[in-house]
Amino acid sequence: MNTISIEEGQELQLDFSKIQKIFRLNHHVIPAVVQDARTKDVLIVGYINAEAFDVSVNTGCVTLWSTSRNQLWEKGKTSGDSLDIQDIRVNCEQNSVLFLVKPKGIGACHTKNQKGQSRKSCFYRRVVNGKLELLEL
Fold it and tell me: Residue 116 class from Cβ within 10 Å (0-12 exposed, 13-18 middle, 19+ buried)?
C-alpha cells in the first residue's frame, strides 16, 4: 500500500493490522480523538503516550505521538493549523481520550485538498458501494 493511494484513492484499504503493528513496536499509547468543540466534527483520531499527553495539557495545544515516526507530533508546528484544547475527556476505562478543540488555521488533516489547502478533517471521504467517495471538493 502506498501513501498516495491510501490518502487520495477511491479503493477501500482499511488497515486492520495497525494496532498489532503498534503492539509489536512496543509503543505505550492510547487512542486520542480530536473533535471540534463548536461543530462536533471529528477531526483526527491519533495516539498519545504519556509524554504527548503531558505536553498537550501543559501547552493547551494538541500534541500526539506519531507511531510511524516514533516521535512527538505537535499539531500545527509546521502547517500553522494548531488545535487549541478547550476540554479533555477520559473514557470509563481510562484507555482513550477525547480532546475538544478550537481549530486555529485552515484545517486539521496533514493531507491537502485539490487547492493545496489543509483539509478541515481527516474524515474527508465516505464509503459508498464499497468505494471511497470524496466529501470535500
Answer: exposed
pTM for the structure as a whole: 0.88
CATH number at residue 87: 3.10.20.810
Positive/negative CA dihedral, 20, 25, 28, 31: negative
Task: Return the SS3 of 103.
Answer: strand
Greatest CA separation found in the chain? 44
Hey, which bits of 1-137 come out as E strands? 30-36, 42-48, 63-66, 71-74, 83-90, 97-103, 125-128, 131-134
- Per-residue pLDDT tens over the stretch 96-117: 999 999 999 888 988 888 888 8
